[in-house]
Amino acid sequence: MKNRLFVVAVLSLVTLFAAACGTIEEKTEDIPVVTVMDHDEMTEDTMTEDTMDEDAMDHDAMDEDAMDHDAMDEDAMDHDHGELVDVSGLDSPPTVSVTAVADGNGGAVLEIEVSNFTLVPVSPPVAHQPGQGHAHVYVDGASVAMVHETTVAIDDLTDGHHNIRVTLATNDHREYAIKEKAIAASTSVMVTGGQSAVMADHEITLEIMGGEIMGGIQRLEMSTGEVVAITVTSDIDELLHIHAYDLTLELMAGMPATLLVEANIPGVFEGELHHAGFQVLSLEVS
Amino acid sequence: MNSSTVLLAHGVGGRSDLPISPWDAAWSGATVLLLSFAALGLLWHRPRLAKAALGRLAQGGECFVSSLGRIFRALILALFLVVVTGSFVGPDNTTSNLTPVTVYIVFWVGGPFLSAIFGPWWRAVSPWETLGSLIDKVRPQNQNQPPSWLTSGWLALLPISLFHWVELAYHQGSSPRVLGWAAILYTATLMAMAWRWGWKNVRNAEGFGVLFSLMATLSPVFKDDQQRLRVRFPFTGLATLVMTPSLVAIVLAVLGGTTFDGVTRTTWWADLTVGESGWSLTTIRTVGLVWVVMLVGLAYQMASRLGGRLTGDRSFAERLGASLVPILLGYDLAHYFSLLLLEGQDFIRLLSDPWGKGWDVFSTANHLVNWTLVSTTVVGWVQILSIVGGHVVGVVFAHDRSVELWSSRTALRSQYPMLIVMVVYTMTGLVLLTG
Fold first, then answer.
1. What is the pLDDT of residues A2-13, one digit of tens each?
2. Does residue A33 sit at the B interface (CB-CB below 8 Å)?
3. Where are the alpha helices (DSSP H) in B203-345?
């Protein structure tokens, strides 16, 4: 008898627990989560595109493709792992270089140079032709333009350092790559005369050279609601990761990059270099 | 990519606690002193705890508890198998594998807390108990005399020390694969020994079980000699605890490890180890861990020697050793309370997909850690109160045992060395929390 009572008690407990889990799930539903699923979707898209290559490009498919780029760029670390066309086998593979000059008016002018490559207009869409395509322009990791011109003006930038990255894309927006690394050129530009960047209450500047932090671990005490601009220059490619806030900043060798962090969780949080695996900064939010 | 080697302090971690203000710390240190002295001399002239520890019978509780025990025994064994397989099958990454959060937070932090609340639950559900009693059923019934190194109880110190080293010193300590191998090795060794000498003897070597049983004496729930369920006032069970030198050593080792964990979270330590990674980091941390454990142990042993001289009792360290148990619980709470409630939430997410196959068994696979579940104010107060509270309980127990053992004048004198150690521990504990 007691046993039976007990079973009833356990069942009701389990039900309660399940109900509680249900409410937890509902709460989190509104928050968008960037998950690994994106990669899978992307690979699928690539596969369908491959079969589509034979036919002329379909406009809808291209739009979808462009959307995928946006999704991809949100997760800046992944832009090398997207859709690549490997040209490692070529004797003289395409190359690209880029220089950027600030126009003093909140913009920058890029000079793009390519070799072993033919730049063709993005529109109207045409099918993939080896050695042919356009350039993708990224600013601070976000895709801003697809161009076939060699001189490109970018406007409406905020004051401060910006990373410019140019990749070579096929007519169907995959990127040419050598040994799984996109053929790309990067530079940085100091923009002046534009909108001032988001008002940061604090600034942290970090310089990492030879596996060491110049001036040691940077510590900052700040209040909730404040914004800190973390500018990092590393002599090798790295990834800065802020714990719990789960923010990452991709660092390209020798180029300063800036991450804005709005302090909305109180506590002490470490920032570490992902590959080297050591702490470089700590934010004390109270 | 070596994403598995992402360095996370104390095994796993995201949000660290805000340093508490030195003013609060000093204030609470003073409180400890006052409360201790008051408890010592004025109010407490005869032993009270032993009588209180008898408790009273919890009518009808056995049936409920034993059924619950059976269910949880099966669940825990299943979880154990899922986690161990998951440490090899799942992603080789600290944050997306179930193993690190289960081992370092749910098991290592949750286990002692649950023991202090619910008593000897681990003994009832531990996968090693389950497997060990299975071995007992099938093994040949020979009467191998267990060797003295097994029966002495000192062997339990080994798994605890190795665990601490992997958690706090080894640079690959949060790698699921490392933890998986460690679990397999530990289980295999225990079972091989159980095959030869019987689980009854090998139980002494299961360090975690030994530690959790010590914590369980703080609980208001316990089982008497006739296996009947009884309840008593929390902490009074300490009066019934018989400490051996090996048990004292285990508690001191864990206390030292927790203290070292606190040291590694100071800015001083961060500056000392800046830019270090890999084996050089492991070396520095190993030296630090050994040092801190030695210091903590040495402080206790020296006070015990002094106390032994004052009372003429050679086993002073064991007689009062039980007072270390509530202190350990206090340290644990202070250091890991927020870890359990915040980073521990990741267990909910990962349990739905234990092998990284994209499953969503309990529809919690998208659970995000709510980093503001407990406010920093609450965490700060829990830290101060648990450290101070743990020491107060320790001092009260030590006093109670002293007046039981010795004449009141000797008893009071015997307290001074212990009181000094407690004050040193309290101050150290609080100073570490001030960052």
1. 555 556 666 565
2. yes
3. 207-216, 245-264, 267-272, 278-311, 316-319, 324-341
